[in-house]
Design goal:
471 residues, five-stranded mixed β-barrel, single chain, alpha/beta, six-stranded antiparallel β-sheet, 34% strand
Length: 471
């Protein structure tokens, strides 16, 4: 039995504006209707796989659980990292948790935001990696390069790859410049580093004891002092904060003596940039990918995407362009410079632009909301509350609210009175009044909220009760 460990952190800033800190790319439906995270869960849901262990941040714990449930996978165990510490502490914590039940447990560690087009080929590579992993090796997976790529790290093999036969690893290589990448491609003994690993839990821990022993104490303490919270396991923050932030490659893999690499054939992509998404999405005969409300006229070698059905994106005579339109932000870039979008986000942050990190749709444990209109002393929101969702019992110091239900039924509490509000009905919540809203039905409930007042910030909330235990 293989135990998938899915790393579900990161912000994916190279795919801005679709991927942002508040809503990173693994949770977005970038290809098809399902998110990359959901596609990853499906990849590891067949025979031979145990329930996945999902390592994610506090702000994404409900999203991870809800997206798993949406595709019928309710057995995923979600472990909440109280703060980001890169991949090494996350993998060590997972290994320590698995080792308690079975030191021989095989861990398959994979990011949640990769695409693998050929699932049988991927599973064949995993199967090929199992014998050396059960024999004590640390196994990593790599992809045969088909171009001189400068956006990936590389695995240097001791011999040219043959099928998916495991090959001893000579070294890890950082992202190269173009000239070096060309030399690696011609050499035929290099693979792109896919960031996927396979090993026994006990062997991973032994490798940490040898190469990064300082991480063991804080990770063990974070587990020992951790708590189960609303179905999640929350690592204790104080000890986990003492773990050094470092990647698994740097902490362990580059130092370990017995590392095997398995060539991975399966249409792999880490979707690390818009040009990578363009390739994975399958361009048409003109090299164009048009996603969403898009009209492409006489365009070549371009990626055009609209994420708002009311915003029609039109490309005329474009060549080698990435254009991504959202309600609150638009990116237009030379496709050959797609790797530089990360620096664009850094510039926006330095300039204090909210769109650098904030997403126009704010996801909450009970559903989501988005601002439709914001002006002086008023704001109009659209709110979706999923079946069974319950907003906190709260009040506001500076605003009153008017709720109009447009679909479904809301159970509304205002002061001491609770009542049902159905489609085309509305209620008014005066400033300072304690109130709550819930969806008792079996379908999503949508409403329009009109706020009026001197201050409309989200921090003007006094919570009295909250089933999601938010502070």
């Amino acid at each position: 039995m293989i135990h998938p460990v899915i790393l579900c952190g990161g912000s994916g800033t190279r795919l801005w504006p679709s991927s942002r800190k508040a809503y990173p790319k693994q949770f977005a439906p970038l290809i098809g209707r399902e998110s990359l995270y959901q596609r990853t869960l499906r990849r590891f849901s067949g025979g031979g796989f145990a329930a996945p262990l999902v390592m994610t941040g506090n702000e994404f714990r409900f999203m991870a659980t809800e997206q798993a449930a949406a595709i019928g996978l309710s057995d995923a165990r979600v472990v909440v990292e109280p703060l980001g510490r890169d991949t090494a502490p996350a993998i060590l914590a997972a290994a320590l948790m698995l080792e308690r039940d079975d030191p021989e447990a095989l861990m398959l560690v994979a990011p949640s935001d990769h695409v693998i087009a050929d699932l049988p080929a991927f599973l064949a590579a995993v199967e090929a990696g199992c014998p050396p992993a059960r024999d004590g090796a640390l196994v990593t997976f790599g992809v045969a390069p088909d171009r001189p790529e400068t956006g990936y790290g590389y695995l240097e093999l001791t011999a040219p790859p043959a099928g998916n036969t495991p090959v001893p690893l000579a070294s890890f290589r950082e992202k190269p410049d173009l000239a070096t990448a060309r030399e690696m491609l011609e050499a035929g003994t290099y693979l792109w580093n896919a960031g996927i690993f396979l090993f026994r839990a006990a062997d991973a821990i032994a490798a940490f004891e040898t190469h990064a022993p300082e991480l063991l104490a804080p990770c063990r303490a974070a587990i020992a002092e951790g708590q189960t919270d609303l179905g999640f396991f929350r690592l204790a923050e104080a000890p986990y904060a003492g773990a050094r932030a470092i990647s698994f490659d740097y902490a362990v893999m580059e130092k370990a003596s017995r590392v095997m690499a398995v060539p991975l054939e399966g249409g792999w992509s880490d979707l690390g940039s818009w040009d990578a998404l363009w390739a994975a999405a399958g361009p048409d005969a003109d090299g164009v990918v048009a996603d969403g409300a898009v009209t492409a006229i006489d365009c070549r070698d371009s990626y055009l995407r609209s994420e708002d059905e009311s915003m029609q994106l039109v490309g005329l005579g474009l060549e080698g362009v990435v254009a991504v339109a959202m309600r609150d932000a638009v990116l237009v870039a030379d496709k050959s410079r797609a790797q530089e979008v990360k620096s664009v986000v850094e510039t926006l942050r330095a300039d204090g632009v909210a769109q650098a990190d904030q997403y126009p749709r704010f996801h909450r444990p009970w559903g989501w909301y988005e601002t439709l209109c914001l002006g002086t002393r008023f704001q109009v929101k659209r709110i979706m509350v999923r079946p069974g969702g319950v907003l906190s019992l709260q009040s506001h110091h500076h605003r009153s609210e008017h709720w109009i239900v447009v679909s479904g039924t809301a159970e509304v509490t205002i002061g001491e009175e609770a009542r049902l509000v159905t489609e085309n009905q509305s209620v008014y919540i005066p400033l300072g009044t304690v109130h709550r809203m819930a969806n008792p039905g079996k379908l999503p409930m949508y409403l329009i909220e009109v706020q009026t007042g001197a201050y409309l910030g989200e921090d003007d909330i006094v919570r009295y009760q909250d089933i999601y235990d938010r502070s």
